[in-house]
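Entry 12.
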Amino acid sequence: MEQLLHYVWRHRLFPLRPLSTTDGLPLEVVDPGLPNTDAGPDFFNAKVRVDGTLWVGNVEVHEHSSDWVRHGHDRDRAYDNVVLHVVGEADCKVCRSDGHLVNQLQLACPDDVRCRYEELRRADVFPPCRAVLSALSPLKVHGWLSALQAERLSRKADAIGLRLQQNGNHWEDAFFVTLARNFGFGLNADAFEAWALRIPLRAVDKHRDSLFQIEALFFGLAGLLDNDPACDADDYAASLQREFAYLRHKFSLPEPLPRDRWRFLRLRPSGFPHVRLAQLAWIYQHQEGLFSRAMEPDTLDEVRRLFLAGTSPYWDVHYHFGSATAKRVKQLGAKAVDLVVLNTVIPFLYAYGRHRSEDHLCERAARFMDELKAEDNSIIRQWAVAGLPVRTAADSQALLQLKNAYCDRRDCLRCRFGYEYLKSTENR
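Predicted 3D structure (C-alpha cells):
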C-alpha cells in the first residue's frame, strides 16, 4: 500500500542490511526529505548517496514502478528533479521527460508495521490507538495537541475567508452570519446561517434604535410570522406581522426562510429558535459594531459580557408565539456564552490577526482557548476515557480536529499518536 510506503520512507524504517538500487548500486539515505502535501513529488529536498555520489532533490513514492508512467510523470518536467523513485514492486524501469533513467529503490514494509496498521484500520473502538495513549509522555501529547489546535484555527480562518467573500469582504456582516450560525447550537445551525444571509444589515442599521422593528425583521425573515395560527391570536405577534409587512415593502426584502427549516424536537424551550432570535435581536440593538467590539477586549470576561443577551419583555413570559408561561428572563447561560466565544470570537480573532499580520490577535485567540474550560460532549468524553487529559478548550478543540481530520478518515499514518502505535512494535 502506497500510504504505508510513504510512512516507511519518512520514518526510515529500512531493513537492517545495506540498501541498493534496483540496478544493484549501493544506496545510502542521508535525508528522506520533507513531505509535500501539494501537487508534485512526494518528498522535497532529499539527500541520497548512490554509488558514492550525493544526489540532492526530490523523491517520489509508488506502489509499483509502472505507476510512474501511468501518472504521466515521464512526460512531466515537474518530476525531472526526482533523484529516487521508491516503490513496493519494481516492475519496470522509469525515466524523466528528457529520457534519463531514474534510480529506484524497492522497499518493503516491515511485517509488524503492516500488522499494526491493519489493527488500526479494522478497530471498532474509538480511538483505535487507545492502547498507547495513556503511556505517552506529556511532552508528546502537548506537542501534537498544539499542532492540531493550530490546524483547527487555520481551518476555521479559511472558512471565515470564504464567508467574507460571500459578504462582500465586510467583516461585520461575516461576523454576524457566523454568530447567527453558532446561535443554532448544532441542530439549527444551518437554518440560522441561511436566515442570517437574508438579513440586510444596512437596512437594519436604520432601525437600530427600535428593538421592536429589529424583531419584526428578524422573525419575519425567519418565516416564523407566517402560517402559524398562534400568531393570529397573539397581539404582539400580530404587531410584528404588520411591522414586517411595512419593512418588507420599504426595503424590498427577500423571501423569508421556509418555516420547515427550523427544528424544535429534542430542544429545551430555552433553546427554541424564537428565543435565540429574540436574543440576537437584543444583542444587535445593544452592541453596535459588534465585530469591532469583540476584537478589542484583552480579557475573557470582557468578551463574555458582550454576549450576556437579554430579550424584549414579551419573551420573559414566552418561548414561542401564543400562550404565556411563567416569567423567566431568557439570558444565555454561562456555558452557552463560552461556546459562542469559542466558535465565533476566537476564530475571528485568529482570522483577523492573520489578515492584518497582527500576531497579538492570534496569540490572544490561543490564550482565550487556554482559559476556557474544555467542551463537554460525547467525543471529548471518549478521548478522556482513553487516557488523554482534556482540561481546556484548546485541548478539546485539538481533539475534535484529530477526530474529524484524522480518525474519521483513518489517516493514522499522518497522526503522531498513530505513529506511536506503529512504533510500539519495535519493542515487542
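Annotation: The mean pLDDT is 93. The chain is about 50% helix and 10% strand.
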